[in-house]
User: Fold these one by one.
Assistant:
Number 1:
Amino acid sequence: MPSIEDLEKKALRYTGKAKSLYDSTHPDYLIMEFRDDTSAFDGIKKEKIAHKGMVNNRFNAFIMEKLEAAGIKTQFVRLFSETESVVKHLEMIPVESVVRNIAAGHLCKRLGVEEGRPLDPPTHEFFLKNDEYHDPMINDSLIRTFNWATDAEIITMKAQSFQVNEVLKDLFSAAELLLVDFKLEFGRLNGEIVLGDEFSPDGCRIWDAKTLRKLDKDRFRKDLGGVLEAYEEVSFRLGVPLPSS
Ligand code: TMP
Ligand code: ASP
């Protein structure tokens, strides 16, 4: 069996909207590729944004290392190339876990709440990962009945989502950024729940704390322009090491 340092990339296993997963020469590890593809509204709006894959790869590595340091188990192992990382091979749970600190996006549409309203305490929602059905909101009862996760796994996913929020809220606030909301995905490894997928401006909302300028994928969703520049600015302010361009 090759060591983690000597892994090589093998066959493509899965292609998502913005990332691809490859097998590696070790069955316990996969290679996660962050592509420049950018997608919103369940794949209806699509575009390539040059260098976004590289920025998100570094951003994700930075955040996952912070979370590991705070005691949260993650799928991330190490950077593999400019746009790829080595990750642990998880059995993914088809559920998205969303935490919100400030009202935005679908919460405003669904409940008629004004964008920008602080949410105290922060909210938690589960969605089913299913583009065809537009990621419908689900609850603990549906997750149990359809066997997407056990009661214990539901409790752990929720608790870890709030824990991630506490760690990242502080990290972002130190950079004069507001972590408005974010989406996480979890998987199983040896019977344990592990944070999987990615954390990047593609899957969260980040506003400048003073001006409330949007610095995340809403710039793409709403055609505000300067998408890559916003991702780079957030990276710079958080201290994510990016190659100088
Ligand atoms: P929402 O306002 O569309 O419900 O999204 C809340 C946050 O979760 C936002 O930062 C975007 C993120 N999210 C995704 O990245 N992918 C998804 O499929 C969902 C449902 C949310
Ligand atoms: N539902 C999310 C969005 O609107 C993710 C996606 O569809 O790609 O961006």
Number 2:
Amino acid sequence: MKGDIGVIGLAVMGQNLILNMNDHGYKVVAHNRTAEKVDEFLQGPAKGTNIVGAYSLQELVDKLESPRKIMLMVRAGDVVDSFIDKLVPLLDKGDIIIDGGNTNFPDTNRRVAALKEKGIHFIGSGVSGGEEGARFGPSIMPGGSPEAWPFVKPIFQAISAKTENNEPCCDWVGNDGAGHFVKMVHNGIEYGDMQLITEAYQFMKDGLGMTHDEMQSVFIEWNKTELNSYLVEITSDILGYKDTDGEPLVEKILDTAGQKGTGKWTGINALDMGIPLTLITESVFARCLSSLKDQRVEAEELFGKKESIVEGDKQVWIEALRQALLASKIISYAQGFMLMREASNENGWDLNYGNVALMWRGGCIIRSAFLSNIRDAYDIDSELSFLGSDSYFKGILENSMSAWRKVAAKSMEVGIPMPSMTSALTFLDGYTTARLPANLLQAQRDYFGAHTYERVDKPKGEFFHTNWTGKGGDVSSTTYNS
Ligand code: 6PG
């Protein structure tokens, strides 16, 4: 009997996905560039299963049922292109290549188009959930050649995570690089969620002077509220974890954050599309700032930074902090969905936002109860332009407003950096302000560069120039917006 699917790449994610597929009754052919890895896998975790090995790409191709489905679980970038180049001459028209790595979506756009000309279908799929997710149910976000989806769907939906109603956290996202785009936004939101949690931790630790056991209890309690999520859950575990000397391990970890690029891509795309994705972008910059460790150490001394004590009833502050975190999280997701909406319009992807929320409901790093509410919001209005306008989320934003402002103001007063929570509030203040000071900005642009402006008392699209000083000419520069 031939194999149902081939997987190339036996690193952690590849191995666990294969074992997961095997558990669901699929016959998987496993290949890795180095043959020893294949042997190690077959004699190790894959022993006693239906998984078979292939020591060359030709052997892999020969062992697969038509149309062949070959999933690449290799490092994003050139390695993917190199495998595609080697595979294509061995494949038949109608065969399917799937890239399950964290690929930048323009690469997927390019590969879908290039392979289409050769009659090969290509799927670029986000896979989230780390090692545990890959093994027992990841969130899977596939996009690319729609013709390929019916062949891949049963396998992907079988191995994916399931919601509490047993719905698979995997569905077709859209054409071209839509799947990798949605995975990129998922990761951007992951950056935002993580940053928000760390801001709450710093407020509790430095501002309220709480112990790690106290903070752990707070996160355990928060996990029983609307904040219920994987990231809040692991944070409580981390805060309770003691090193061999009995001290909290987290305080022994160097405070410089790493990043592999997906958060940065999300910010870059937001800038390119003109979407005010402030919270995620602040979270990327917060990681950049953290990496300037030596400079920060020097600057703390140079400026004689004082301790940041927050006075008042601790329990009241903790509840205010919870509300500020929840409200900020709503803004982060609202901005993320704004970005996906713009990308969907620009690329003709026709994204289904409720389905995206469903795919993120289980299995992935940002999985949370909250995503069910997002799905409900898009069920009510599939074209909702701002998540915060949905009645459920609007209610939370309104109820949290005063606590959120108190926390933001206090953090500024005592000097605890909370870039994501404060930028979320600033965004909402801007978004809910009918008249912003951009009129003055337009006047400045027109003053120094004759860039023209529109008037509130004239139809939009009519542009005016004023000779502000009486010295310049009346000639205006061309009006265009990038
Ligand atoms: C996931 C994660 C996964 C990975 C990130 C980490 O969805 O399973 O997002 O993709 O953990 O790449 O990203 P950074 O190294 O940039 O934090």
